[in-house]
Amino acid sequence: MKQQIEILGKSCTVYQRGDVPQMLLLQLVDEHDREELDTEMEWIVSHSTVDFRFIAVHVDRWFDELAPWPAPPVFGKTPFGNGATKTLDSLRQIAGEEQQRMAASVETPIKVIIGGYSLAGLFALWAGYQSDQPFDAVVAASPSVWYQDWLDYAATHQPQSDAFYLSLGDREERSRTPILTTIATAIRRQQQLLEQAHIVNVLEWNPGNHFQDNGQRTAKGFVWAMKNLLHH
Length: 232
Known about the structure:
With about 230 residues, the protein is of the alpha/beta class. It has 7 helices and 8 strands. It has one domain: Alpha/Beta hydrolase fold, catalytic domain (Rossmann fold, 3-Layer(aba) Sandwich), CATH 3.40.50. Helix 1 packs across helix 7. Pfam families: Esterase.
């Protein structure tokens, strides 16, 4: 089932597998991600038996709404804003409303997974460190862990989610933009910090650069997270 609906003022693409979903999957998406959503869903459905409700929340101002704090431009002249807190508040409201509605048909608490690709992957990672209403699992596919001061933040804060999925393309560090060449070193450091905090995690390497298979790469993360939450 696929729907285009508005939830609490946010434009969303919603998929559902089964009449009684066990898990709620949330992903922030831009136009390119939206083009990949059908492919992403097909991969999830073919590699998992879990019934779920998936909500892709459309983001209009990518560099502002997903950034946890201001940073200078990396792509063109657009600087990063600090809209992540406001975006997270909206996402929590959506999750709360959906959980309440879904809870009427299930006996066990609904597990919630937050995921994203690229800067949305960094947002999901950052959300996994927030203590208020923590998500059960985080999917950070090719996340922008090169982001200014991110690793310092991760080193000085405690992860709040139970499980983290990290991934990266094996050619992503080959970039003409200097800061992006740090991505492989940064993702390994991110995993090391999760290990030190004794958090369940995995780091998966995908073939290719940053602009390949983002739907499938994100789908892999959601499948891993669902299986992990079922077994714990």
